[in-house]
Each structure stands twice: as structure tokens, then as C-alpha cells.
Amino acid sequence: MLLQENGIRNGIVNAGGDLVVLGTHGDRRWRVGIRDPRKPKVLRTVELEARESIVTSGDYERFFTYQGKRYHHLLDPRTGYPVTDTASVTVIDNDPELADSAATALMVGGPALFAELPMQLGIRYALLITPDGEVLLTPEMRRRLGE
């Protein structure tokens, strides 16, 4: 990584809310929050290992409401309309491109495919939040969060 080649050993790279961490935060791992997509609060916190990425896809940053319906930028290719049964998905992986594409795929797959799709994509750590606030976790994410 270019930063490490230039002597940067510890830090966070933030690309529009998608994070990659380098090294540690002093004597501990980097700790980041996973945002509640419907309320201005942190839903969970997670510690990241060096070189891990955490990426969230959600319906809460870029959207508008028209006649009581939320329209956002994450479209279901099967319908051409915005995804409706998922509010956000957070993925942790060492590969930021995989994490980003997996978060979007899991957003589209929704709760119905969440039990199987992360495994098919090679994702161990994923968290899905439905519009009504239900939280779904992969088994490894559940263990990582201590739940």
C-alpha cells in the first residue's frame, strides 16, 4: 500500500465512509461504529485488524421520499426499483473491493438470501439491518461482536 511504502504505519483511510485500517490505534485495535440506518446513533461497534476494510451499503445517505415512499440509489436489477427489504448491510473483509461489492449484493439479496449469500460470496463478517430494525448477522460476525 502506498501509505505504508511512505512510512505510514497506523491510520484509517476513509473513502466516502468505506474504511481501511492500517496498524493500530496506539496499543489497541481500531474501533469503529456501525450506524443505525434510521436513527442518529451507533448500533454496534467492532474492532478491526490491521489491513481490514469495513464497508456499508445503505438506503439512508442518498434518498428522497415521494408520496410516502423512500427512493434511494441501490436498485434491485430484477425490478429496476430501489431495494425495499434492506436498510443497510455492513461487511468486513481484507479485500475492500470484495467488501464493497458484497455489501451491495447482500443489500439486493436482502433477508431472504442472507443465510446463504455471504458464504457464496466468501464473506465471513456481515450484518444486515431491515427497514423495521431487525438485525441479521453471519455466525462469525455474531461471534466477533460477542453476541
How would you describe this protein?
- This protein has 147 residues and is an alpha+beta fold.
- It has a single domain (2-144), classed as T-fold (Roll), CATH 3.10.520.
- Helix content is 22%, strand content 35%.
- It contains four helices and ten strands.
- It has helices at 2-5, 96-113, 117-121, 139-144, and strands at residues 11-15, 18-22, 30-35, 42-48, 53-58, 63-66, 69-72, 88-93, 125-129, 135-137.
- Strands 1-2-5-8-9-10 form a six-stranded antiparallel beta sheet. The protein has a two-stranded antiparallel sheet with strand order 3-4.
- The radius of gyration is 16 Å and the shape is globular.
- The N and C termini lie far apart (33 Å).
- The model has no long low-confidence stretch (mean pLDDT 94).
Provide the CATH top-level class: Alpha Beta
CATH topology: T-fold
Oligomer: single chain
Number of strands: 10
CATH homologous superfamily heading: ApbE-like domains
CATH architecture: Roll
Query: Helix share of residues?
Result: 10-25%
Radius of gyration, whole Å: 16 Å
Average pLDDT taken over every residue: 94
Q: How many H/I helical runs?
A: 4
Shape, please?
globular
Query: Which structural class is indicated by helix and strand composition?
Result: alpha+beta
Biggest sheet character: 6 strands, antiparallel
Notable features of this structure?
single chain; 147 residues; alpha+beta; T-fold; six-stranded antiparallel beta sheet; two-stranded antiparallel ribbon; 4 helices; 22% helix
